Amino acid sequence: MNLLPQDVLVMLKLAVSPPPEWSYDRLAYQLGMSPSMAHSAVKRATRAALFDPMHKRPRNEALIEFLIHGVKYAFPPDIGATVTGVPTAFVSPEMQDSAPTDLAGEYYVWPYPNGEHRGVSLSPLYRSVPEIARYDAAMHTALGLLDSIRIGREPEQKLAEQLLGEMLG
Fold first, then answer.
1. Helix (H) or strand (E) holding 93
2. So where are the chain's domains?
3. Global pTM?
């Protein structure tokens, strides 16, 4: 059993902005995946002790530990050319005001043809991430913080870890 990137996306959604009375259908729709993919993601997360099936919620302490210490190794990002997309990492909503000023030239985006920003391409955790970020501010923030952990230097990583930990409680 291996965790997949969409498993992290599903756990983040359930931790950050769960749909009221969530169902696999509603969760899948909001994350741009099939209900069977959402169900499989929860099953894998349960086996990895990231999800509590009794309470139908992520185990926040385990999830935070995995996000901070595991995701950058399990799902390393691909950094590419300058493209149009949706801001992430140090220029995502939460990091923009908090990141050190020496990062002003490092503008990362998830490639997205309808994006309004240009920057260095950073592969999203899952293909629907740029679309999700456009309508779900909490997920945009959480995924941007996660990208700051995936590609940042130690000061940015520490700040993103702190902010993500506060966000997930």
1. helix 93-96
2. 5-74, 79-168
3. 0.91
